[in-house]
Design brief:
Elements lengths: L7 H33 L3 E5 L7 H4 L16 H10 L4 E6 L5 H12 L3 E6 L11 H7 L2 E4 L9 E5 L3 E5 L5 H5 L3 E7 L2 H16 L12
Parallel strand pairs: 2-3, 3-4
Antiparallel strand pairs: 1-7, 2-5, 5-6, 6-7
The structure holds zinc ion.
The site of zinc ion has 6 residues, from loops.
Length: 217
């Protein structure tokens, strides 16, 4: 009898409120599920070798025509180049070897655009001909390296601390244009956080203030 006493407009309002509430809850769970899905799945996988193409137009501040004679079509290298150039605040590179002119130019462009670039590399390989560590340092990019006979063998980069680029790829012409290699791109997960921590730990460990410059006994 009490229900009958409630006017129809009030019922309608209550049903509408219930409908909105259920819709909002449904939307919340949908967004949460999608968010989890995005966090768990790698965004992309790139396979190398890449075809020999020119990525120079990607490095220019304003897109222009390049008449180098090479193809400018999309490739694993152009995807990787675009990704590295998407950095807005920071680009942390931790690679065994850095001799690729394409990738080192990309790192230099990111630095010239005001991105804070930090590079960690291997002390033995940075001394070899072709290493671009010298050009980084001349440009004012901070480079740190290991001090022992074991290799600093990582091959990963962190873009704005949110996107991880990792895999088997050495940052060399041989790695890009010759070898069978893979690069996995992972966004904003616990895996990314672990690599951020690893980079920070190595950056601290390889602080020049801690260099001994004397052989271990
Ligand atoms: Zn070109």
């Amino acid at each position: 009898m009490l229900l009958m006493a409630v006017p129809v407009p009030v019922w309608r309002g209550l049903l509408l409120a219930l409908g909105f509430s259920l819709a909002a809850e449904g939307l919340y769970y949908l967004i949460r599920s999608l968010n989890r899905l995005c966090q768990q799945w790698p965004a992309q996988v790139l396979f190398f070798p890449a075809p020999v193409t020119c990525v120079r137009p990607l490095l220019l501040s304003s897109p222009g025509h390049c008449d180098c004679g090479l193809s400018h079509r999309e490739s694993a290298l152009s995807c990787l180049t675009r990704l590295l150039l998407s950095a807005r605040h920071s680009l942390d590179v931790c690679v065994f070897t850095i001799s690729s002119l394409e990738l080192s130019s990309t790192v230099l462009v990111a630095h010239s655009r005001g991105v804070r670039v930090r590079v960690i590399t291997d002390s033995d390989y940075m001394a070899l001909a072709g290493s671009q560590v010298g050009s980084f340092r001349r440009a004012g990019i901070e480079v740190r390296h290991d001090q022992d006979t074991n290799y600093m063998h990582h091959k990963f980069a962190l873009i704005d601390g949110l996107t991880l680029v990792t895999g088997s790829l050495n940052w060399s012409a041989q790695g890009i244009f010759g070898n069978k290699e893979n690069v996995i791109i992972i966004k904003n997960t616990d895996i990314v956080k672990a690599f951020v921590e690893e980079f920070g730990q190595l950056w601290n460990e390889y602080d020049p203030a801690k260099y001994s410059f004397s052989p271990k006994k």
